[in-house]
Amino acid sequence: MSNPAQDEAASLPRPSGTAVSLPSPTDPAAVRPSSSGRPRTSARPPRTARPDTSASAIGELPDRQFFPDREDDFDEDDEDYTDEEEEEDVFAFQRPQTGAVTGMMSPGTLSSGASDMASAPNTGALPTTGDTAYTGYTTRSGMTFGMSRKSSAATGTGTDALDVPASAPMTFTPSPTGPVDVGGQITERVYDPAHPTPFSGRNNLNNSAFAFSVPSRRNSRRGSHDTTASTGTGQPSRQQSRGMTGGTLGTGRSVFRRARQALTTASTWVSTVPSVDSAASEMVDTPVEDEDSPWAEVSASVSNIDDPEMPALTARAFVLGLFLCCVVTACNTFFYFRNPAPNIPVLVVQVIAYPLGRFLAWALPLRTFYLPSRLGGYSISLNPCPFNIKEHTIIVMMANVSTTPAYALYAIVSSELWYGKTFGVGFNILFILATQLTGLSMAGAIRRFVVWPASIIWPGLLVITTNLNTLHAESDTSQGGMSRLRYFLFVAAGAFMWYFLPGFLFTALSYFSYACWMAPENTIVNQLFGVSTGLGMGVLSFDWAQISWIGSPLTAPWWAEANVGIGFVLFYWIIVPIMYYTNTWWSAYLPISVAQIGDRFSSQYNVTYILNDDATLNTTAYAEYSPIYLSATFTMTYMIAFALTTALITHTVLHHGKRMYNAVVRVHTEKEDIHMRLMRAYPEVPDWWYIVLFGACVLLGIIAIEVFHTGMPVWGLLLSIAIAAVYIVPAAFVYAMAVLLPNINIMAELIPGYIFVGKPIQGMIFKVFTVQTLSEALTFVADMKLGHYMKVPPRSMFIVQFVACFVACFVQVGVKTWMFESVPDICSTHQKQLLTCTNAQTFFTSSVVWGLVGPGRLFGKGGIYHPEIWMLLAGALAPIPLFFYVRRWPNSRLRFLNFPIMFAGVLSIPPATGINYASWLTVGFIFQWVLRRYKFAWWSKYNYVTSAALDVGTYSCAIFIFLVISLPGASVSWWGTTVMEKTLDWDGIPYKLAGPEGFGPTTWKV
To answer: Which one-letter DSSP state was computed for residue 144?
Structure first.
């Protein structure tokens, strides 16, 4: 199919063979003073071809959006252009034109600096003749951005010309032409100053001189920042030229005086640690501030300026981050064993940390502590500067470790309660430490694949970066309407108040199964439209917790959400009903969508019937009782999981294999963007740090399984870690592009099920080392990308990640030990505080299925579900024809198809239902397609803020309702809270009922 952007570009008139002359650099009208403001011209530039933004599947971009000019928004940066301030409208945001040009030109050097750049007017489109002049610029590392120049003597003209033949057509790539993993090749891009990205420089809402700079030691005047001494250039820095508002923090003159005093008498904590970040104190040459990421999502959410002298790992940030890490870890571990239970997400911690950091900046004394000379004589300041954005990022990274308790807790509880094997506190600590820190070491190994490349944008992190910039980097006089901070507060407050309806007063809004309310006794209607045990074809839900159950629909790009939608509709709304109503594998005798395994009497499988006293399988009882049956959706989930395990590998090899190889041999696979070059100011973490950590973690794991006599062989431990290592890069690509965490539980259960037949404890340990290592690695590598965006020194990131993970391990073990020693009847069905350990019981049931019964009885030859094994082959082959088809027809719409995302996105069913996916897709279509396409200015400014505000408001209200209303025992009972419970969907009635003798075959594999 044709591309709308390309069609429009083709229709524009092109210059023939005539030369295009540029004003001479000596012409006063052409050379204007350099300013950080946006140059204005009396005549608007010619309209350029709209960019191809198919990377996010939005097609053609909308026209420019306008906001009325306001008289009180005068900016000193525009004082050189006061004669042109009478325009009727002001561009609130630049429409994305060309953020990059293809890397087909030869490298050049900068010859004349800013004056040359000023001499070339921004025409909006580059001419293609050989007589056209164009200027690039060179960074400190020697990388040239723009195009090389021939001297005037070589061309025989008064201006320079492009170093290409006059007849050679120049093709400019406005923006990425598709998902980065489709086609396997990333077009090399360099920055084009004539066609900046939409939110460059002062148009970037995240850029605040104060948010990314600290008061200078040399210039104490409020509202200025002089870094002449640090840069060594003799010219004012960008921060100084733009000015410093100071209004964002609002700390008053006393705080500024105290900050200046602290900076005069004390150095930051991180700079006093030898060989950690001492090199960061040297200011490096940075590109012009108009350069930004070529990706619209990143340029709208991440600042393109940095101050390497800004403190990051301060004593204040370290202590506050560790405190929040311990508190959130303890709370979430306690809630881990409750059902239902709230969870404190990272965005809530992010908001809480902001006033706490501001308070510490106000309250802590401006005192510097010095170590004795025999200890190095280093100094530590408790209050080196006002609370800044990098400190806030450090706190968020430390708290993020604690938002999800260790997966190993499930195995520990299952072993102690239901298998009667208690290994002790020492084993628990070593077990959790080994699994979590192994993930950190693997994250360091893959950062060159998914952190450093600019094309791996991690859209899920942009919500966090936008929220950080909203709190720190935006003043109340932001351009074009309401500021993002004020908007965030309004939306968060509204979400908090609204959630009282679906979360407590009118819960039917959450389980909005209107068709079931109208026909509560109709079996088929309840199975198709039900939201408890049905397929959720009702589409709507008014509960943000239900809509975002599989992730925020405002973060993932639409092309990824569309892949998930295709997989969901195809597999669960088309194939599953066909399987169910044709009674495939006797699925019609169970509810259509439940996560529990069933027996041949249409009841939940009772695993205690087949267990011996020593927690081994009683084959006689198993032969007399029943084989294991799966619901229709659970059967489909296993089939898709089989396909995913092989599709991940095939897809990664085809689309990313060459890039991974080049990254391993240290060959650049794409041009470094502004963020990567800014991070060059900080020393990178050596690879040997991660290698040593990996070796130590493996040693801890060996000690845990050998000293405490778990029966797990050392080679089994190494195999489990090897499986995680194989899948970590493919899973990271999916997680980074689509905000979806691929689930490899099927491999972590299938392999030990065949190796350790009848040994469920060894199977659980194997599964934890595989699943936990992979999930922790993805969490840590996501934090690395967050630090990369926020310009946090890499070695500071390593320190806080390691310390937070280490401390959180002890907190989790301590809380778990206290609960099981102090809480009566814990994990029982009728526990008073609802500490029923539902998730741990599900983990235990899975260990019985895979460890005791074993995959051979289910999926082996003669097993009921043996045909599902063929999905391994189908998953391995599916990406191959698509890959070659897209290479043959690269502009086809099929280039957006991504089988790993299609498979991984639907594995939450069950326990998720269709209402979660349908509402998620509906909201995602509105925000990521409609608003992004037709209201791009609004979307770029408020989209990620909206996501963060809805999360913060909803989850804060959920925690409030739980602690203040539900925990004391208050409740509401009326039609709006009980109507969904009076349906066949809520009761889980199957399509067919089993007789007294049960259903299915009379004999089965034992």
So the answer is: E
In 217-264, where do the E strands start and end? none
pLDDT value, residue 786:
94
* Strands 144-145 vs 149-150: parallel, antiparallel or unpaired: unpaired
State the DSSP H helix or E strand holding residue 347, giving kind and residue range, or none if neither. Answer: helix 346-363
| Biggest distance spanned by C-alpha atoms of the chain | 99
3-state secondary structure 645-671: HHHHHHHHHHHHHHHHHHHHCCCCCCC
Please report which residue ranges of 591-686 form alpha helices under DSSP H: 619-625, 632-664, 674-679
Cα distance between residue 665 and residue 156, in whole Å:
44
Which 3-state string (H, E, C) describes 755-774? Answer: HCCCCHHHHHHHHHHHHHHH
> Is residue 721 within 8 Å of 773, Cβ to Cβ?
yes
Q: Is residue 953 a contact partner of residue 493, using CB atoms and an 8 Å limit?
A: yes
Handedness of CA 568, 574, 580, 584 (dihedral sign): negative
Alpha-carbon gap, residue 129 to 14, rounded angstroms: 10
Round to whole Å and give the CA distance between 428 and 437.
14
Per-residue pLDDT tens digits for 772-813: 999 999 999 999 999 999 999 999 999 999 999 999 999 999
Give the pair of three-digit tokens for residue 25.
């650099």
Among 852, 854, 413, 829, residue whose Cα is nearest residue 614: 852
Model confidence at 934, in pLDDT bands (50, 70, 90)? Answer: very high
pLDDT tens-place string over residues 129-140? 333 333 333 333
Phi-psi region of 584 (alpha: psi -120 to 50; beta: other; left: phi over 0): beta
What average pLDDT does the segment 975-980 reach? 90
Q: What is the pTM of this model?
A: 0.71
DSSP characters over 205-222: TT--TTTT----SS---T
Task: Measure the CA–CA gap between 876 and 865, rounded to whole angstroms.
Answer: 20
3-class SS of residue 68:
strand
Locate 930 and state its tokens: 């409609």
